[in-house]
Amino acid sequence: MSTVTIVSGTYRNFTLSNQTMRLVAGFKSGAKGNYVTVIGDDTMGEFEGKQIRVKVEDESCIVAAGTVVTKEVAAVVPQETDEEAIERIRERFQILEDMTEGARDGNVKALIVSGPPGIGKSYGVERVLEQASFFDIIGQRKVRYEVVKGAMSALGLYAKLYQFSDPNCVLVFDDCDSILQEDLSLNILKAALDSSSKRTISWNTDSHMLDREGIPNRFDFKGSVIFISNIKFENVRSAKLRDHLDALESRCHYLDLTMDTTRDKMLRIKQIVKDGMLDKYEFSETQTQEVMDFVIDNVTRLREISLRTVLKVADLVKMKPMGWKRYAETTVMKRA
Q1: Which of 139, 313, 315, 316 would be a feasible disulfide site paired with 324, CB 3.0-4.6 Å?
Q2: CA 19 → CA 82, 260, 312, distances in Å?
Q3: Where does a domain end: 30, 47, 76?
Q4: Helix (H, G, I), strand (E, B) or coil at 4
Q5: In total, how many domains does the chain have?
Q6: Domain check: are 118 and 148 in the same one?
Q7: What is the mean pLDDT of the chain?
């Protein structure tokens, strides 16, 4: 099946820009406008792997198989080179680290980071905060940050915010998207992220847990929050959730890491591997290249395009240097 790059198009609440997908049927015109039929990729949420019709303005919005289809596109739409894309991605992650430093120093009260799973969103954040806490650990003082992962109840959220409510404390919620699905948790989070000079958070019902832990029913939150999410806020279709997310965005700095395509993810992987991600394995240059070649050659069949997948393949090379590909094909690839 051939591929097509959609220079500019839309599908429901998704906006596509320079996005390459598998082509089902080329440019057509219908009662509701122009469209191209493709297979949704891993940026399309529930529509991944499904046949969809993407609306486009005209044929100049389509680039097929890496070749410019029309002269108009060549003249109007500049094609981003790999080097330019890598620099764009690198800059976004540098901004993430700089904003984390701002949160550590109390200058950034709230930051939302959006990007797909497995591309190192939390790595830079944790590294900055670990460096900042080095002397606290040596001096046996309270560590001023914590990374919270996974599901969390509203009461647990309230207690955790109290624990890190002092100035220059940073609470990082990584892959805690369940908080966004529950009204009470969302209201507590919105109170913590409020832009006013005084952020008061309240728990207005009796709780044995709060009493047991000595946590008051009301406190002022003076710390900072970093919320790392796999959700691309602008693509959320639920009207109810959309209102909540808009409220969060209005209170926070919002950083989209712009990792919207398979190409972007692969370039990020190449960048991190080049920067030494596999050094701990002590591979030869040939082995490192074999790991990358396997990921690149099988990108359309991988269960997940991520740094984690690269590490899984590297683990297999370390375990079985002469027969690792058979194991990798079985464990990290989808069935044909």
Answers
A1: 316
A2: 14, 8, 27
A3: 76
A4: strand
A5: 3
A6: yes
A7: 85
